[in-house]
Amino acid sequence: MKQYSALVIVAAFSTALALAGCSTPKPAAEAPPPAATREAPVATSSIVPGSAEDLRVNVGDTVHFGFDQYNIEDNDKSTLQRQATWLQKYPAVRVTIEGDCDERGTREYNLALGARRANAVKEYLVSLGVSASRVETISYGKEHPMCTQSTEDCWAQNRRGVTGITGGASS
């Protein structure tokens, strides 16, 4: 009897294999989920939160001024609001505001104008809740141009206030 059972099992198994070889292929049991439901790979950033690069890339570190002006323009207020929010998030960070000018005018005049620009940025940040003790100012006048061509577009790039980290975080 045991031999008969073994023969039946072997015959059944052989028949199943033969039929499987002759049958049409079956679709995959489970298809991968649609692209919309798959998790996207997480992008990693090398930017350190609270760093000078974080401020520059994710917040914005520069505002611009009109010719012979030091008032904060409406289109730059949002940048300074983001800076204030960022500074509140990183209370140990101290910053220096650099005031810069274009090449026109005397060295002395541009140093004074650069100081007024840096102070205007500082005052705006302080009005948004940033402690004045965390913000220093310096004027470079026309000594640190971003652009060296004598064109209106270039001069406009040089009329700026730049917020830089001076302490409390890695730069």
Descriptive notes:
With 171 residues, the protein is α+β, with helices and mostly antiparallel strands. It has a domain at 52-167: OmpA-like domain (60s Ribosomal Protein L30, Chain: A, 2-Layer Sandwich). 43% of the residues lie in helices and 15% in strands. It has helices at residues 2-22, 52-59, 74-89, 107-127, 152-158; strands at residues 62-64, 94-100, 135-141, 160-167. The protein has a four-stranded mixed β-sheet with strand order 1-4-2-3. Strand 2 (94-100), helix 4 (107-127) and strand 3 (135-141) form a beta-alpha-beta unit. Helix 3 packs across helix 4. The longest helix is centred in the N-terminal third of the chain and has 21 residues, at 2-22. The radius of gyration is 34 Å and the shape is globular. The N and C termini lie far apart (85 Å).
